[in-house]
Amino acid sequence: MSARTGPAEVRASAAIIVAAVLDEGRSLDDVLAVENDEGSARGLKRSLCYGTLRWHVRLAAVLNALATRSPDQLAPRLRALLEIGLFQLVSGETAAHAAVAETVSAARVLGFDKAAGFVNAILRRFQREQADLLHAIDRDVALRTAHPRWFVDALRTDRGEAAALAALDANNAHPPLWVRVNSMRGDVAWAKGELEAAGFTVTPHPLAHDALQVTPPADVRSLPGFMDGRLSVQDAAAQLAIELLDPQEGDRILDACAAPGGKTCHMLERTNGNADVTALDVSEPRLQRIRDNLERLGLQARIMAADVENVRGWWDGRPYDRVLLDVPCSATGVIRRHPDIKVLRRAKDIPTLARKQANLLAAAWGVVKPGGRLLYTSCSVLAAENERVVAAFLLRTPDALDLTPELTGSWPPRPGGAGPGYQVLPGETGMDGFYYACLGKPL
């Protein structure tokens, strides 16, 4: 590819990235992490990648209707480039003539000179037939909202039609920027004032007491208070976990599955650094993220690489006052931040994840002190990973107390018969999707 970084080269590079996700199963964040673009080229590339993957299911249906041969027969990068061109035409973020011309040029940059006419014909035909094509495709909710059908069906079953549709639409919105105020270095009122003085619109959260929504979203390094550890980026839903865990100074606390460490840092901030916190994660490389966050905020915790399930391999036998178990999950509550989840996650993954979650919950419960508290959380919106895992645990563990209804009594009410715990769906109070079940162990 040419070293020049013009509009066609940016689109060609975006097609390579999108194809890596769609056809190689790579994470979008991982692929983008090695990109070194700056300025407008970086912004355009990321916009094209995120937008195309966010709307991939719908765009693939459009392409299938337009192409004279199955898109699956096309080279992966050419198919990705066609979806990028269609995304530009649908979104209207780029002038239509430029979207077509630069996409055709990008085909040549990628080495598809002979396909340039085909690309032009597909995009021109879509321009002519856009209204009728989208009207036909959008009669199908899964295609209209660009989600895999298995997920749409599961969400409707679990959450009901209206809530499911609201969540699906929220997944396609650009996520807001939430920050957490470090209560050891200032309060929310002070942080709000500084951010407003810098030209941002700032909105507190009604339930997450350290959370502020900052508009418009910006590079976090430009926010007053971030570089010196007074602010951290964390969605309000994740911050609510610490409201329920309610850590106290002097507590012995385990943050299981802790990386990248946002909740570890939050619990230390809430206890003025005066809690004995162990941050445990199975991934040694991910532990560096925890170390980096602790260093920026001037906090200290014990960090261990271990599998929570292998209790004998890491536990010293002293029980914990508080245990936070943020389980590995489908991440279907954070699709708006990671649209590649729509592509990478499969229905067959869910039973395997649920078994792992059940095993982790059983293991973590064993290290809770009598009179202590375990908070089970996930960023999934599927009952199979949330209510059903916790309900099965409560059946097997009759002495475990579900404290969630009492602790969330002032939160918006959940539907009757929803099961144990509390589920937030994407978009509610501007938050990501998140689940909480706070369990108490009797004395």
How would you describe this structure to a colleague?
By secondary structure, the protein is of the alpha/beta class. The protein has 3 domains: 7-146, NusB-like (N-utilizing Substance Protein B Homolog, Chain A); 177-233, Sun protein, domain 3 (Alpha-Beta Plaits); 236-440, Rossmann fold (3-Layer(aba) Sandwich), CATH 3.40.50. It is 47% helix and 14% strand. The protein has 18 helices and 12 strands. It has helices spanning 7-24, 28-33, 39-54, 56-66, 76-91, 96-109, 116-137, 141-144, 149-159, 161-171, 188-197, 236-245, 262-270, 284-297, 341-344, 349-365, 387-396, 404-407; strands at 177-181, 201-204, 211-215, 231-233, 252-256, 276-281, 302-305, 320-326, 368-378, 401-402, 422-424, 434-440. Strands 5, 6, 7, 8, 9, 10, 11 and 12 form an 8-stranded mixed sheet that branches. Strands 2-3-1-4 form a 4-stranded antiparallel sheet, with helices on one face. Helix 14 links the parallel strand 6 and strand 7. Helix 6 (96-109) packs across helix 7.
